[in-house]
Amino acid sequence: MIPLFNAALGIRVTNSRYQKETEKSSYVAGRDLKILTDSELLVPHGERRGRYYTAGTELREARQKARRDRTVLDPYELLEISGAEPPPLPGL
Q: CA-to-CA distance for 17 and 40, rounded, in angstroms?
């Protein structure tokens, strides 16, 4: 579902944004967001017109488990270890 994906990425979910992205009516969007809130996948913030939703604990934990450690290795160090020559730069 779009609101769960957005919330997992840290994007605030609003009723109006959800309606636009899914082309659902205000009633259906509100109902869907209530179901997700009742199941604690989304956490509501604010009241009425300023209300938005963020990821609940379970959704945040799932996102953390899915993320990989993205250690960026120094490519020049890898060349030194392998003994290879760096590729020529284009146009030089």
A: 20
Of the candidate CATH numbers 3.40.630.10, 3.40.30.10, 2.60.120.260, 1.10.10.10, the domain formed by 2-82 belongs to 1.10.10.10
Q: What is the pLDDT along the chain (92 residues), one digit of tens a residue?
A: 777 888 888 888 888 888 988 898 989 988 999 998 999 999 999 988 889 999 998 888 888 887 776 676 777 776 777 777 767 778 76
